[in-house]
Specification:
The chain is an alpha+beta fold and 138 residues long. It is built from four helices and ten strands. It has an eight-stranded mixed sheet. Strands 1-7 form a two-stranded antiparallel ribbon.
Length: 138
């Protein structure tokens, strides 16, 4: 399946932030600096190169290179950047992706092209932050 991307005409409020590469490390630093009461309301998941934090818009940290993400009403289990979307009907795209990736919800990244499952997100505790740092150090 091939598709392009277009600007989001009506950007939704962010419900998450994603950092890739160096931006992921900066995002993790920003999360760690948050007041513990704010951090406890956030959820984190990561892979080798990507960090995703989800939560209320007012609790999300800013960091250089971070993109904000949110699900869409027409495909609630598909999270996308708040500023762009694929040029296909999102419900159909989600159903096609879900055939190969049954986890839900899923984040579809444009750059780098990745599908990241969000169902394993855990509370943003100091222990989880340390675990992610340890994983990244290899």
């Amino acid at each position: 399946m091939k598709w392009g991307w277009r600007s989001e005409a009506d950007p939704p409020p962010p419900q998450g932030a994603v950092g890739v590469g160096a931006a992921a490390h900066g995002l993790l630093d920003a999360i760690e600096r948050l007041d513990e009461a704010v951090r406890e309301r956030l959820m984190l998941t990561a892979n080798d190169d990507v960090l995703i934090v989800t939560g209320a818009a007012q609790s999300l940290p800013w960091s250089e290179g971070v993109a904000y993400v949110a699900p869409r009403d027409d495909a609630p289990a598909l999270w996308l950047s708040t500023v762009e979307r694929p040029d296909l009907p999102l419900d159909l795209l989600y159903r096609a992706i879900a055939r190969r990736h049954p986890q839900s919800p899923l984040l579809l990244l444009r750059e780098p092209a990745q599908i990241v499952p969000l169902h394993r997100a855990l509370p943003a505790t100091a222990a989880l932050i340390a675990q992610i740092r340890s994983h990244w150090r290899g």
